[in-house]
Amino acid sequence: MDGRKEFEAWAALPPREWDIELNGKDQGWPDQYRAYHVQCAWQAWQAAKQSQWNEIDYSKPETWPEPERQCIIVLGGSIDTRIYEFDAEFQTWDSPELDDNMDFRIMPTHWMYAPQFEGEL
Fold first, then answer.
1. I need a surface site. Which of 32, 42, 68, 102 has the fewest CB within 10 A?
2. What Rg value do the Cα atoms of the chain yield, rounded?
């Protein structure tokens, strides 16, 4: 779920009332918004959503992070700043910073994609 319906509902409401029509598959820039400012707002919306905490419900795969994407997690009410990847097959959290997979007594309740950096820090 990419949040497009939520974005379009927000964009169409006053005071914005933006035209949220997409270019067709046979047009230049297919599947992008015709109005440039709407496309820019959509891209900003997606970036902002990537940097928010997401609640995880282990019985609902749509709440799980994408495979092989690095995440940080909330564990026992505290943020664990190590980097983890969620293994959907086994519903486990793996971290390259730890020798073995974590065997949590309390499963993480929230996750956020880790910031991606280019170059050296």
1. 68
2. 18
For residues 23 and 35, what is the distance between their CA atoms, to the nearest angstrom?
Answer: 9
85 φ/ψ angles, rounded to the nearest 5 degrees: -125, 140
**Is the same domain home to 37 and 65?**
no
Q: pLDDT, tens digit, for every residue of 27-57?
A: 988 999 999 999 999 988 887 777 788 899 9
33 to 19, 21, 38: CA distances (angstroms): 9, 6, 6
Number of domains, the chain = 2
pTM value is 0.56
Tokens 């902002």 correspond to 48
User: How many CB atoms sit inside 10 A of residue 115's CB?
Assistant: 9
Task: For residue 118, tell me if it sits in a domain.
Answer: no
